[in-house]
Every structure is written in structure tokens, then in C-alpha cells.
Amino acid sequence: MLSLTYSYRIYPSLDQEAKLLDWLEQCRRVYNYALAERKDWIKSRKSPVNACGIRQEYIIPADTPYPDYYKQQNALTQAKEAIPELKAVHSQVLQDALKRLDKSFKFRQERGFGFPRFKKFGQYRSFVFPQFKSNPVSEFEIKLPKIGAMRINLHRPTPEGFEVKQVRVVFKSSGWYAQLILQATVSVPDVMPQGEPIGIDLGLEKFLAVSTGELVERPRFFVDLQSQLRWLQRKLRNKKKGSANYRKIQAKIRKLHEHIHNVRREFHFLTAHRLCAIAGMIFAEDLNLKMTSRGMLAKHCLDAAWGSFLEILKWVAWKCGVYFAKVDPNGTSQTCPQCEAHTGRKELSERVHHCDQCGYTTDRDVAAAQVVMQRGLVAVGQTVILPVEEGCLGTPMKQEKPTARKGSPRSTH
């Protein structure tokens, strides 16, 4: 079973937009109520039976079962009788809100942290139609249950042989979007390691260093627009909360954040396609992204979004038939790719790799990328390629990368 997600811009009418906004609000209320019900049940089991809190204690009978997804789903029927606003929302849309909460609890249980939080007004921005009897998309419009037909911009056709299984409606600062989840009963074989291998090393001085000696500059998407964001947030602070001007500044802030996200994502896709065009195998470091998001360089690491880039590179490599794998990142900058000697720990200001044993000299990040490539070749059982003795200090990769310009933000959709 192969699944794809295509995103398209939709244009609801004024009545449809009001209904979509009301659905988002009702889903938010159902989500928050179900979350409060689970939190109360958990809190009532924390205190010992012979003690209670100093101020107050929320007590639930001991024989009350845990409010899991199925019990809360069955309670929706009674809730619709007491709250008439819930009847206007598609039943499966409300059930998906409960399913989203249940996934959050299961994900928290797996990783051990990240308790789900309540959604404030305006923070719940999407809902899902989980199934359709027939294709809801025609050439110029999409038909959603209880919403009706609305215009859709099919800027690219859906692939042949795929059926629309689900539709997610997303509300962004730039407008409304419909994400079509397409499925097809086809089996795609795994990409086998073959072709020209390259290794990549991610960093802050340069966004990317390739084992061939090419370097990719790191655009400062968030940092370049941080002054404009700070100015908007200072204006928001001086407005009365909930007023019309307050909401206008909020919309500008959301639009700026979306602009930064779009430009960064476009840069990641362009870089991934360029790497896949020059290689048959790509090896990258298996970074501990949780640790890189802490410390004094956390803002710059999050701005580079290495984790998002690696996920995009993995997807683009699969689509282009390029083998992609991750290797152990320990000691890549302390190993000579020419003679495998341990060169010792380098300071961040030391940007050149020089081996005292073999005399190999090259850019520090390029040397690390070459070590990554060699480790990847060993993992797949192929012959290790040694770099040339006359190492270069790195050459910039020619590319047309988007930059975050100051001024009015634009959408890249």
C-alpha cells in the first residue's frame, strides 16, 4: 500500500468559511473536554489513599474506568443531545479530534515526555474527513460532506491509479488548503545501493558540506527576519487584547512565520534535488537533534532545521531512486579520511583539517563528509573510496537558493 499527500488551495464562500471556522471551534472544544477528562482521571490516581492535597483534590470513584478513545467516542452521542452545536459537525470529524488526542497520549507514552496541552482559541487549525465513498475532487471543485462544493486549484494532477481516501482541511494565514491523502495498492521495491556515493555533513558555518568538496551556504531565514518579527510583537503588546487591531497584528505575525517556513522548506527541497541529481547513494550523520536544539546555538540550529531537511532528503531520494542511509556521527570530525588516523578534538574556530601523519589537508566539514561516506560504504559492503592527496578547502555549490528578504512576507504556495 503506497500513500501520498497532495496539498491544494481551496476557495470557500463566505458561508462555507463561517461553517469551517465553526467546525474548527467545535473540534477544539471536544479536544479540550476529552483532554480535561483524561487529566482529571490521572490526577485522581496520583495521591495516596490515606492523603490528599493541601488545597483541594479532584476525587473520581475507584471503579471508574479510564476514559480511552472508545469510551469518549461513545459519549459523543449523549453530548450531541446536550449540545446542539455539535450536531452541525460531521460525526467522523469529531471522532477524528478524539483520535488525534489518543495518538498524542500514545506518542507521549512511547517517548516518555510531551504531555498534550489544551488548545487555545485559534490554535486548532485542521480537521479530517476520514473516508469517502467516491472521489470528491472534480476538475475545478471539491465536494465535502455537510460543507458542499467549493473551488479548488488543482495546480498538478493526481497520479493515475490512486484513490482519495482522506481529506484534511487546513486553515493557514494565507488561506484554506485541502490535503488529499491518496492511496494505491502497489508495491515499490526498496532502493538498492548503487551508483556514485557521496557523504554530507551538516553544520552552522556552512549548511552542508559534500564529500566531493562542495559547500552550501546557510541562509538565515529566521535570524534575518527576527527584527521585523520583534517589531510586530512589540506592536502587539501595545494593543488591547481581543480588539480588531490586535487581531490584525496577530495575522501579520502568523503570515510572517508562514513565510519563513515556506522559504526554508523550498530551500530544503531544492538542495535535496541537487544532491540526488549528482549521486546514486547519499549518506548522512544520524544526529541527536534533541541535543542540538539546546544551548546558546539552539536558535541557529532550529533555524537550519536539520531534521526537516533529512526527512525531505530521504523522501526525495526515494522518489528519485537514490539510496539514502544514516551512519554513526561519533568522531567524524576527529578522523582523517585519508589514513583513518585520530587527529584529536578540534575547536569550533578551527575550520581546516590537517593530518600530521599523512599530511592530508582540506576543509573540516568536507573531511567529515568524506568520513561519513566511507562509513556508509562499509555499512553497505562496498569498496571504500579514499580522497585525493591534494585536498581542497571546499568550493561553493552553484545553486539558486531562496532568501528571506525583509519587507512584506510572501507565500510560496
Automatic annotation (TrEMBL):
Gene Ontology terms: biological process: DNA recombination; transposition
Segments forming domain Transposase putative helix-turn-helix: 1-46
Coiled coil: none
Sequence ranges assigned to domain Cas12f1-like TNB in this UniProt record: 306-370
One Pfam family in the UniProt entry: Cas12f1-like_TNB
UniProt KW keywords: DNA recombination, DNA-binding, Metal-binding, Transposition, Zinc
GO molecular function, one term: metal ion binding
Domain Probable transposase IS891/IS1136/IS1341 residues, every copy: 190-290
Span of the signal peptide: none
Domain of life: Bacteria
Record carries keyword Transit peptide: no
Family of this protein: In the C-terminal section; belongs to the transposase 35 family.
Record's protein name: Transposase
The species this protein was found in: Leptolyngbya sp. NK1-12
Phylogenetic placement of the source organism: Bacteria, Bacillati, Cyanobacteriota, Cyanophyceae, Leptolyngbyales
